[in-house]
Each structure stands twice: as C-alpha cells, then as structure tokens.
C-alpha cells in the first residue's frame, strides 16, 4: 500500500522581505499621490506638481531605506544580545537551562517524562538553536536582514511613487488631483490584494484596509492644499 506524499507551502519565510516590500510600495503610492493631490488642489501648475512629486519620491525612498535599516538593525542587535546571553547561560548553568526547556515543553502539552526526553535529545543535537527557537522565539525563518529590508523598501517605494507621477504627467492639468486620486485608489486596492495573497491572507480584507487609509491621506492633503491655495490667492 503506497503512502500519499504530502507537501505544504508556508508563507512565514516571506515575512522578512514581504513586510518591507508592502510597506514601501504602499508608502510610495500614498505619500506621493497625497503630495501630488495636495499641490494640485492648491492650484499649482504641472511643473510644480511634478517637481514636488519627484522630490517626494527621492526623499521618501531614502527615508524608507534609512528607517528600515535602523529599525531592523536594532531588532537584530537585540536578538544577538539575547543569543549571546543564552550562550553564556548554557555554558555556565546547563542543568538549569535543560530544566527550563523541559518546562517549556510541559507547558505546550507534553508530559514531564516525554518533555525531558525531548529536551535532552534536542539539547544534544543543537542546544543553542533549540533555546533560541523555543525559549527566545528567534528563528532563521523569520529573522529580518537590515540591508535586504532597506533595499526592498527603497525600491518598492520608488515603484509605488512612480505611478502617481506618470498619471500627473499625462492627465489634463485641471483634473490632475481627481485622476491621480482615483488611479491611486485602484492601485492601492491591487497592492493590498497582492500583498495579502502573497502572505496567505484574505485578498478583499487586505485591499479594503489599504484603500481606506490611502483615501484618508489624500483627502487630508487635498483639504490642506485647498485651504492654503485659497488663502494664497
């Protein structure tokens, strides 16, 4: 009797770059579109709108890269400090660490004898890796990489920001604000759906939450543009 093969595809290994990619593209779309809409609502001409949008693209991409690098580096530093502390404890108090690991498995549902056997065998194979994973929650699968996060964020921000700039360069000057807003909402819905799909979540839910916050941001900047545009006039 043959055994059926069983294969699974999990999404958790994508967390490191997927979060940075979705955040970068979403921020690029929303911030640049909002900037374009706000400047257009103030009554500015196409050259001013495009210059403002391009400046926002460059500044935003650099800001995203720097922010992601610093943020993920801080996370990595904290993880490394915990691993170093755990390495020291395994060397100085191995029995206490074994008891701690046993208690973790007991709390997860194993009886004490089996939990002890599992703890002993895993410790013999890879003590530090076992404690890092089961005690500290640190795993290579979900560990983020600062440079990767920075590059992905900057690149996806630029890609997202290009969309409203292209629309602004092609749309009639008097209708730039409304056309950019509408196309950005469509792009945000697509982005939210793709991001949710790549992460294994609900597509509709992902699209709605991204579109909602994008619409709110553009409405706010349009209001600011209209207020100051009227005041300046």
Quick overview of this protein structure:
With 233 residues, the chain is mainly alpha-helical. The chain has helices spanning 15-41, 46-92, 94-107, 112-134, 146-170, 176-198, 203-232. The termini are far apart.
Helix-strand layout with pairing:
Blueprint: H1 15-41, H2 46-92, H3 94-107, H4 112-134, H5 146-170, H6 176-198, H7 203-232
Helix pairs in contact: 1-2, 1-5, 1-6, 1-7, 2-3, 2-4, 2-5, 3-4, 5-6, 6-7
Tags for this entry?
7 helices, single chain, mainly alpha, 233 residues
What does this structure look like?
With 233 residues, this protein is mostly helical. It has a domain at 12-83 and 149-232. The chain is 81% helix and 0% strand. The chain contains 7 helices and no strands. It has helices at residues 15-41, 46-92, 94-107, 112-134, 146-170, 176-198, 203-232. The longest helix is centred in the first third of the chain and has 47 residues, at 46-92.
Task: State the total count of DSSP E strands.
Answer: 0
Structural class: mainly alpha
Strand content bin: under 5%
H-E order:
HHHHHHH
List segments where confidence is low: pLDDT < 50 over at least 5 consecutive residues: 6-13
Q: Radius of gyration in whole Å, from Cα? A: 25 Å
Continuous helix count: 7
Q: Compute the separation of the termini in Å.
A: 84 Å
Share of helical residues: over 70%
What is the overall shape? elongated
Major sheet size, sense and barrel closure: none
Please, what is the average pLDDT?
A: 82
């Amino acid at each position: 009797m043959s055994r059926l093969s069983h294969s699974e595809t999990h999404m958790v290994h994508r967390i490191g770059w997927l979060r940075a990619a979705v955040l970068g593209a979403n921020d690029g779309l929303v911030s640049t579109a909002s900037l374009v809409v706000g400047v257009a609502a103030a009554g500015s001409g196409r050259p001013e709108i495009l210059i403002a949008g391009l400046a926002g693209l460059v500044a935003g991409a650099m800001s995203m890269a720097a922010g992601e690098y610093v943020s993920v580096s801080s996370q990595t530093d904290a993880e490394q400090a915990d691993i170093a502390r755990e390495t020291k404890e395994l060397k100085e108090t191995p029995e206490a660490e074994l008891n701690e690991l046993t208690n973790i498995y007991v709390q997860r549902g194993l009886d004490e004898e089996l939990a002890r056997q599992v703890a002993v065998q895993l410790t013999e194979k890879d003590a530090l890796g076992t404690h890092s994973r089961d005690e500290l929650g640190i795993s290579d699968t979900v560990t983020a990489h600062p440079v990767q996060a920075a590059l992905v964020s900057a690149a996806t921000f630029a890609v997202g920001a290009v969309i409203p700039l292209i629309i602004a360069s092609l749309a009639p000057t008097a209708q730039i604000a409304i056309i950019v807003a509408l196309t950005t909402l469509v792009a945000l819905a697509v982005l939210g759906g793709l991001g949710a799909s790549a992460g294994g979540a609900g597509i509709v839910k992902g699209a709605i939450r991204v579109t909602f916050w994008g619409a709110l941001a553009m409405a706010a900047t349009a209001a600011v543009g209209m207020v100051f545009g009227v005041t300046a006039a």
